[in-house]
Specification:
39% helix, binds flavin-adenine dinucleotide, 546 residues
């Protein structure tokens, strides 16, 4: 049995960031990945035709570049070949009538754009950005803190001192407000609503969900401040650089290594056993980047964990499903309408706030939406190395789909058994392609190849994308913030000593920010005396929670 200080199960972005921090600090680290490639939902491949480099799953890196791991590891990763490219034209929405609305990286330009659509909306935008800027420490503090811990308690105390009881109560109300309520209270124009509402889908929420207003504001602020960075050559370059960094510090990253059991002795995690019978010992920590369903349904023996915790973990809920469509084109797409569409990284096609709300509601009721929110990603607007000269590439995302399809809200597609088989997948992709083609007249004549990934394909590609949920678990309020991954066992510590739970299913949730991996690494790297003190405080806070 090979021995390490830490064994990390799975090689998602949280695992790699965590391993990089630990390895850099001198820990002997092993990252074990069951698939053939490291990176989980970060993968770049010539999926369609040679020379076309598709980000198969995630593609946009504002959360990584704006996050705590990049702040510390960025230089070391750049030394290992990682280069970020960015744009001043991160996003826009194209409405069915051909009108569009855009967000750039400039506050005044954005205010002018929103004012063009609705008198007074320019000033509302400037106020939104200014007030979020003033609260940035608290807002990003919430998103970057272990909430059930002394640090979480400290953040609360600091906010109380700064804001006072009344303002803090208002801040709490703002956090749980829906996107619809925030948008309609803040902006007069439906174009402004339609520009921002689709972004809640990227946080796993719908516009009527609790906390979606907060997430809309945070994302709007982050996009304006940070643009839409992508690594030159594709997302996998980030994975390559992280793996190199881990290896340069003596760490190990192995693929094709499916962990089937966490070894527990006297209530303490001591290592893992793999499907092939091999095992790896961990002297200081076993860190699992898995869903709660896998952690409590597969990796831990019933005898090693309280029955009520295991039951709650197995009942963890997944959210709506995702489909990805990749196009290789013989020429770049040419949009009809506003010339800014050609250079915008992410264009949403939607009728607006009500359109997003309707599509989410249809998916929640098991239906294929009549008019989905289509995310048209154009990586080539930032990085021309993604396709051969003169050719085009598109990354399409559809985040409003059910796992089991009961019917078609449009009443057109025969959904058969309701399972995501080839016929349903390609039939639905045809509908989306026709929608896009209405706005990109040269789309259909230029398709060299189309590859579609259904929710079932996503689950097959990555066990953490259970039920085709790109965000590894519903972000409904009872599984979010203080309650992520689930109320019986929130945070990253588990009831098994030295066993830690990270990944999109855990706080602060999905995305490439690597928040959970960073939080756990930082906790493990605290000096022993501080760790003991913080451990005692955390026990106190957690006992209060129990
Ligand atoms: C289609 C799609 C598009 C997205 N787009 C974006 C985007 O543009 N920007 C953004 O910020 N976020 C995006 N996201 C979300 C983001 O990519 C994910 O939230 C994030 O990558 C998840 O990282 P993770 O660390 O939780 O692990 P994951 O990436 O889920 O990786 C977990 C890894 O663990 C492995 N594993 C699990 N169990 C075991 C085991 N028992 N043994 C060994 N290995 C195991 C899995 O095989 C997998 O490789 C997208 C997600 C998807 C699916």
């Amino acid at each position: 049995m090979a021995d390490y200080d830490a064994v990390i199960v799975g090689s998602g972005i949280n695992s790699l960031a965590c391993a990089a921090f630990l390895a850099r600090a001198g820990w002997r680290v092993a990252v074990l990945e069951r698939e053939a490639e490291p990176g989980g939902a970060v993968r770049t491949a010539e999926l369609t035709e040679p020379g076309f480099h598709h980000d198969v799953f995630s593609a946009w890196h504002p959360l990584w570049v704006g996050g705590p791991a990049h702040a510390e590891l960025g230089d070391a990763l750049a030394e290992r070949g990682l280069e970020y490219l960015n744009t001043e034209h991160p996003t826009g929405t194209l409405f069915p009538d051909g009108e569009s609305s855009f967000l750039t990286t400039n506050t005044d330009a954005n205010a002018a754009e929103l004012e063009r659509h609705g008198a007074g909306d320019g000033a509302s935008w400037s106020e939104t950005i200014a007030s979020l800027g003033a609260q940035a420490e608290l807002v990003f503090g919430v998103l970057g803190t272990e909430l059930w811990s002394s640090a979480g308690l400290g953040l609360g105390a600091k906010a109380y001192r700064r804001l006072g009881r009344r303002r803090l109560t208002e801040f709490g109300a703002e956090v749980v407000q829906s996107s619809r309520d925030w948008l309609t209270m803040t902006f007069a124009s439906e174009r402004a609503h339609g520009l921002l509402a689709p972004w809640v889908l990227h946080t796993g929420l719908g516009p009527d969900a609790a906390a979606s207003g907060f997430m809309t504001r945070v994302i709007a602020f982050a996009i304006e401040a940070g643009g839409m960075p992508v690594p030159r050559g594709g997302g996998a370059r980030l994975v390559d650089a992280l793996v190199r960094l881990i290896q340069d510090h003596g760490g190990v990253c192995e693929t094709g290594r499916d962990v089937e059991k966490i070894l527990v002795k006297n209530g303490r995690a001591t290592g893992v056993r793999l499907v092939d019978g091999d095992s790896a010992g961990a002297e200081r920590a076993v860190i699992c980047n898995v869903t709660p369903t896998q952690l409590y349904g597969r990796l831990l023996d019933a005898a090693d964990v309280l029955a009520e915790v295991a039951d709650a973990g197995k009942r963890f809920r997944f959210g709506r499903c995702d489909m990805q469509i990749h196009f290789a084109l013989s020429e770049p797409p040419r949009w009809e309408g506003d010339e800014r569409l050609d250079k915008t990284a992410i264009v949403h096609l939607t009728p607006g706030l009500d359109g997003v709300s309707r599509a989410v509601n249809e998916a929640d009721r098991g239906l294929l939406p009549t008019e989905a929110t289509v995310v048209v990603g154009q990586p080539q607007t930032i990085d021309d190395s993604r396709a051969p000269a003169g050719k085009g590439i598109l990354w399409i995302q559809l985040q409003e789909l059910p796992w089991h399809v009961k019917g078609d809200a449009a009443g057109k597609l025969d959904v058969g058994s309701g399972n995501w088989d080839e016929s349903l997948r390609e039939g639905y992709a045809d509908r989306i392609q026709a929608r896009i083609a209405k706005h990109i007249p040269n789309l259909e004549s230029s398709i060299l190849r189309r590859v579609v990934l259904s929710p079932a394909d996503l689950q097959k590609a990555n066990i953490n994308l259970e039920r085709g949920d790109p965000y590894s678990g519903s972000l409904a309020l009872d599984q979010n913030f203080l309650w992520r991954p689930f109320a019986r066992q929130p945070g990253h510590r588990t009831s098994v000593d030295r066993l830690f739970h990270i990944g999109a299913s855990t706080w602060p949730g999905p995305g490439l920010g690597a928040g959970s991996g960073t939080l756990v690494a930082k906790a493990l790297l605290q000096p022993p005396a501080a760790r003991r003190l913080v451990g005692r405080l955390n026990t106190f806070v957690r006992q209060g929670q129990a």
